[in-house]
Amino acid sequence: MSKLPEDHKFLDLSDYGRPIARLIANALKSTAVTPIHVTFGFLISGVIAIWCMYYGYYWYAALFFILKSILDAADGELARLKDTPSYTGRYFDSVSDIVLNILIFLVLWRITNTDFALTLLAFLGLQLQGTLYNYYYVILRNKFHGDVTSRIFESGTPVAMVGEHQRNVNILFWWYKILYGSFDLIIYKLDAEAANGRRLPNWLMTAVSTFGLGFQLLIISVMLVLGWVNYIIPFFIIYSIFIFLFIAIRRSL
Predict the structure, then answer these.
(1) Rounded CA gap, 126 and 18, in Å?
(2) Nearest to 242 by CA among 213, 197, 214, 204
(3) Potential cystine with 58: which of 154, 157, 220, 224 (Cβ 3.0-4.6 Å)?
(4) How many CA atoms lie less than 13 Å away from 95 in the CB half-sphere?
(5) Which residues contact 230 (CB under 8 A, 6 or more apart)?
(6) What is the pLDDT of residue 199?
(7) pLDDT computed for residue 9 by the predictor
């Protein structure tokens, strides 16, 4: 199943794990395993990858980062197969992602002896890249009746869906706003009219999908196994320049 109707799909370079994720979701659809369980799985996989990265087991780190990306797609697939969308799952997924990203850059800071200010700059760049991708993707999904557990403007705590508890939604939404609120606000200020503009073309969405977390982890994995660990932080600082390029292109359409 897809987050978008068939005629509005684009080549999502960050979503390379989707085919395997569908197989996992189909294998679990008749079991007691829930999407939240799968999200816990990707959180554990990410922690293992970070541990491997810290101790220099870069091939294993890459393997678990890729597994994390696959499971990150599988939780949503399972939710759609079981028809159990939830804000709990949506916010738990996002909070887990940013916690892992923080740990990744803390480890990179330690193992590369990079200046902390540059490490922080790279982390902020990576988060803003991902936020722009998510912003455009959610706009597309809302316009064309795709998956709607993600909202264009996360301005207030949503009402819990059937099968989830409002208290859980409240807590996770609070954490989401603490961790992501500033990034959402910056991207919105940079391109406030995106939701009111023309349809985002598929070629642009494919280009922006290189900002998706799956593709970011793939880049980190490739650089690790190639022995380029010292270049990961500089790469994400430089690649953040494309945020302004993609926004300029979107505005020109």
Answers:
(1) 22
(2) 204
(3) 224
(4) 17
(5) 112, 114
(6) 76
(7) 80
Domains of the chain from N-terminus onward: 10-252 (1.20.120.1760)
Look up the pTM and report it. Answer: 0.93
> Any residues with CB less than 8 A from the CB of 236 and at least 6 apart, and which?
122, 123, 125, 126, 129, 216
Is the pLDDT at 1 greater than 50, yes or no?
A: no
Rounded distance, CA 8 to CA 90, Å?
22
User: Distance (Å, rounded) from C-alpha 25 to C-alpha 29?
Assistant: 6
Average pLDDT over residues 131-138: 94
Q: Among all chains, which residue has been given the structure tokens 């809302």? A: 142
Cβ neighbours of residue 12 closer than 8 Å, sequence gap 6 or more: 18, 205, 206, 209, 212
Distance CA 56, CA 246 (A): 35
Q: Percent of the chain scored above 70 by pLDDT?
A: 94
Q: pLDDT value at position 142? A: 78
Token couple for 183 = 């990034």
Confidence class of residue 107 from pLDDT cuts 50, 70 and 90?
A: very high
What pLDDT, in 10s, does the model give residues 70-95?
999 999 999 989 999 899 999 999 99
| Tokens at 95, concatenated | 């909070």
pLDDT for res 5: 61
Determine contact, residues 181/94, Cβ cutoff 8 Å: no
